[in-house]
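Ticket 4471: requesting a sanity check on a complex prediction with uridine-diphosphate-N-acetylglucosamine. Repro inputs:
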Amino acid sequence: MKPPALVLSVVGARPNFIKLAPVAWALGKRQVRHIIVHTGQHYDADMSDAFFRDLEIPEPNFNLAVGSGSHAQQTAGVMKRLEPLCCELRPDVVLVYGDVNSTAAAALVAAKLGLAVGHVEAGLRSRDRTMPEEINRIVADRLSDVLFAPSRDGCDNLVGEGIPSQRIQFVGNIMIDSLLRALPAARQLAASNRYGVRRGEYTVVTLHRPSNVDEPRVLQELLRALSDIAADRPVLFPVHPRTSRRMAAVGFQAGAKVRVFEPVAYLEMLSLVMSAGLVVTDSGGLQEETTFLGIPCLTVRPNTERPITCTQGTNRLVPPNRDAIVSAARAALSQTTSVAPTIERWDGNSGERIAAVLCEGARFD
Ligand code: UD1
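Returned structure tokens:
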């Protein structure tokens, strides 16, 4: 690929913004025009603007304001609005991030227009096609000309699927770039003080996967588990809007012990997580962040596309079952030390590597 004059990044949802930031910083240092398109998949200020602010990402040049909808509606909405923009701008490369609906939509539009596509966070596989993200990953990877993998297992998955190895670049985990840059500010924020909880003695929870929150019986089981955990140690639960509506529907009453509140911005979340005794989640990013920080993490899912967080890190998969979660949480909370592993190329330089691949033709095997 010759050095691009114009790179177009397409992002839509909260985890995308964390992956975009290091690329934007690295491209900002180079002679290349970088245009950011926000699809509008996430639109609430605390799901979007707060991340651009905390991560010092330039304002998006365009917002497609696609909003919420079914998978087909959302994906099609992004495609319809992105296509004319791509035709007008004719970028040299379109970067797509992670595994959300905006990712697959943008990859489809760009590939069909004959534009080069780069996928940041390529190669992750849960091998569970009931998850919409798995479909989005497969589509984005299949259509990409350059695949930026966060870990060796990601490279292996791609090779196993027949992707030519010269397209695969092992650049490392871009989430860790954002984390490392934000760490001093997050430490200074000391968010746990404001919540009146003591370092290492509380649990942070996030849940938003449809498989965990859309089925009332499963959600109730999880909420009971959280109440049990909170009987020992406080539970802080910033609630995703999808989950919030589902919790209201099952009649959940917030108590003094399980403390529910609106989604928090990046720095505040990092600040809470870095001092937590335990994280219970179904997020992809938190599995990686807790591993990097050495914070015990229980992931309420039957599988993960980030196996390295279990084999080398602090992550453990747990079924959506009250007893299983509570006993795993008690075991984790009674642990006195947990060790942060060193994982290859989770070092804060992934954004630079991506920019070097695009602009200087660098190669990372
Ligand atoms: C999406 C991604 C998921 C990612 C998650 C991070 C897909 C298929 N899923 O899930 O991979 O882990 O983002 O948060 O792309 N809503 C608001 N305000 C917002 C955004 C959403 O109220 O700013 C509500 C809407 O009611 C919407 C629901 O949340 O219907 C779900 O939003 P959506 O973007 O469809 O999926 P997420 O569950 O956020």
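Notes from triage: The radius of gyration is 20 Å. Leaving this open until the requester confirms.
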